Amino acid sequence: MAVKTVSMKSVTILGSTGSIGVSTVDLLAAAPERFRVLALVGNSNAARLAAQARRLNAEWAVCADAAQHADLQAALAGTATRVECGPDAVLAAARLGADYTMAAITGVAGLASTLAAAEGGRTVALANKEALVSAGDVMLRAVAAAGATLLPVDSEHNAIFQAKAGNPERGVEKITLTASGGPFRLATHEEMERAAPEAALRHPVWSMGAKISIDSATLFNKGLEVIEAARLFGLTSAQIDVLVHPQSIVHGMVHFSDGSILAQLGAPDMRIPIAHTLGWPERLLTHAPRLDLAQARTLEFLPPDEAKFPALRLARQALQDGAGAPTILNAANEVAVASFLARRIGFLDIASMVASVLDRMGRRPADTLEQVLALDEEARRCAEAMELSRAA
Ligand code: NAD
Ligand code: MG
């Protein structure tokens, strides 16, 4: 028994009540002999968080929303789980020193806690791409300074990480990220112009949180992923291809200098890349569906339509412009997605709002955390003001 305890990995999940968080909880629950749960962090779903904490015997349960304190405390009465609420408690949970932290809070809201976890110098499994897009240099510097390990959870980036493993860095010519194409791959301009949130949320392959589902419909998700890949793998925009692959079976490919291409394949189920990061450098046993290629039969690959989906072009431009451009792009997109979900703007307004905010704000530095946070805030205010002036 004592030997087992020594080899156990301690785990914290930032964003445990969301789509990625729930999949992570399922994997942990299936291997209680390998993992000890330090903290589960959510925002306002106290009931779900409490059920997860009971199931995994978590040491801490934390809601970012301080108003949930009484409900969370009541739901965990009689357990040994410590209940904490509020933004400072989120940071404290991220600093408990877990061997493995799943960073799965959506958006820049998850930046501070992801950074706090990285500063602990252990393993951070990164689902929160917005934090890396917005604060790329700051985050990579924090990871390097603390000697932390950053493992990509995003299925495409996890695929690239796996396909690159064991190969010399200088042999990589370029990579390909695949995209499902989202719910509007075959839609007309008029259909997209009139699209309601319900239609945009209906992803053909993946079941995910609302923000990333809308990003998949606009293709901003793929744009953010191009920037994410540039940061994670030290590549230029020209070295990162995107191909629409409606079956979502091949998640990413690495093209080597000798003409070889290595790809990672798997059923479109996020438990697979999450399990890769949880087990790494070992492999876990999961009950995720096994891929049957004879059943799949057809694998299609098509170039993305950048005229119909300008998000990809905007993200590549922001990556090339560098400095604060990705921070502005991400913040404007977060505001535009929330406005679309609240039915205040149309679907096609999302990309045009992001383009206008980028134009209006011009070139800005984003070298320090303070600069990133100030720029993020200013870009949000600029986007909100633009929305108000459109409505007027
Ligand atoms: P989600 O909306 O389902 O879950 C988000 C989680 O973050 C929830 O637990 C929520 O309570 C928590 N949260 C939100 N705001 C918070 C705050 N201010 N403080 C603390 N917690 C807060 O989102 P998701 O689909 O699980 O995505 C999470 C992240 O992973 C996103 O960055 C997304 O881009 C990325 N990702 C998701 C998928 C997927 O399949 N869902 C795939 C690849 C990458
Ligand atoms: Mg992805």
Integer average pLDDT: 96
Order of helices and strands: HEHEHEHEHEHEHHEHEHHHHEEEHHHHHH
What's the tally of helices? Answer: 19
Tell me what portion of residues adopts beta-strand conformation: 15-25%
Strand order of the largest sheet: 4-3-2-1-5-6-7
Bound molecules: nicotinamide-adenine-dinucleotide, magnesium ion
Q: Count the beta strands.
A: 11
Low-confidence stretches: none
Largest sheet: 7 strands, parallel
What's the number of structural domains?
2
Assembly type of the shown chains?
Answer: single chain
The share of residues in helices is 40-55%
User: What is the rounded Rg?
Assistant: 21 Å
The computed structural class is alpha/beta
Q: Overall 3D geometry? A: globular
Terminal Cα span? 68 Å
Give the structure's gist in a few sentences:
The protein has 392 residues and is α/β, with parallel strands linked by helices. The chain has helices at 2-7, 19-29, 46-56, 69-75, 87-94, 111-119, 129-134, 136-146, 155-164, 189-194, 197-201, 210-218, 220-233, 271-279, 293-296, 311-321, 325-341, 349-361, 369-391, and strands spanning 9-14, 35-42, 60-63, 82-85, 100-103, 123-126, 149-152, 172-179, 240-244, 250-256, 261-265.
